[in-house]
Amino acid sequence: MNQIHLGINLEFVRHDDKPFEWAVTKAAELGYTHIEPMVHLGRELLSEAGYSHSVSMLDDPLRIQRACQANGVKLSGLSAHTPLCRPEVGVEYLKQAIRFAAECGAPVVNTDEGAKQPWTTEAEDFTLMRYTIQEAVKVAEPRGIRIGLEPHQQYSKHPRGLDRIYRLVKSPVVGINFDTGNAYLCGHDSLAWLERVIDRVVHIHAKDISMQQSTARGKVTGTPVGCACGDGVIDWRRVIAICRRSRRDLVLSVECGTIEQAERSLEHLRGWLRK
């Protein structure tokens, strides 16, 4: 049977105005075994001043590795979302994220098609996405880094669209980063969708959606973070049961907005894993 681990996307501390290393320590203190950092190109004020958890890919990748080793946690992947529909942005961003992941020890780089240009057609967008993914695959394959395509934007907001993006480039490193909350908000049965793709899933965003936020269902394609796992509409018992059918180890990377939500999410998911 495969192993299911509990991790957390470091966005859970984004309102605490703390640096990356502080976020890793906090995740470890809560009891998470895996973390999913966010990376960016270039330099920006907040992370340089220590007010943001995001890590510049101009930094030494071993910075991430050292923080994980110091706190006894592992990497589930890197959050490297970039617009696949815009190769002038996505190609170099993804290639650098993959090289960065290989050096710091992250097995997966997660992304989605991103917001499209208003003047491109659907056919053009899929050609542009194929170009971006193919360029990323050329860097990912020799390094053994998987690319997790997430349901989040205009084309991946339904199962057929995500399948179409997944099939643009045939490669063993292309997989799916399934986001339970985004799939639900898009207006679909997120559990049926997860069952459909579980053999291709390489990473899970464990995102719950509150009843209040559920009023946006069918009107949006996703959300940055959800509520605490167990406080919303997602059936985590069934999510875990489906994940156990996978042939690979999986990390449920919690996406929530506060430390308190992260703590309660861990407690809730641990309870179902024990059962």
Supply database-style keywords.
275 residues; alpha/beta; two-stranded parallel sheet; 11 strands; 17% strand
What is the helix tally? 10
Considering the protein shown, what is the CATH homologous superfamily?
Answer: Divalent-metal-dependent TIM barrel enzymes
**N/C terminus separation:** 15 Å
Quickly name the level 1 CATH class: Alpha Beta
Major β-sheet profile:
9 strands, parallel
Overall geometric form? globular
Write down how many β-strands occur, each being a DSSP E stretch of 2 or more residues.
11
Succession of helices and strands: EHEEHEHEEHEHEHEHHEHEH
Query: How many separate structural domains?
Result: 1
Q: Rg, please?
A: 17 Å
> What is the multimeric organization of the chains shown?
single chain
Return the structural class: alpha/beta
Can you list the strand order of the major beta sheet?
Answer: 5-2-1-11-10-9-8-7-6
Please, what is the average pLDDT? 97
Q: Would you identify the regions where 5 or more consecutive residues have pLDDT less than 50?
A: none
Approximate strand percentage: 15-25%
User: What CATH architecture would you give?
Assistant: Alpha-Beta Barrel
Measured as a percent range, the helix fraction is: 25-40%
According to CATH, the fold-level topology is TIM Barrel
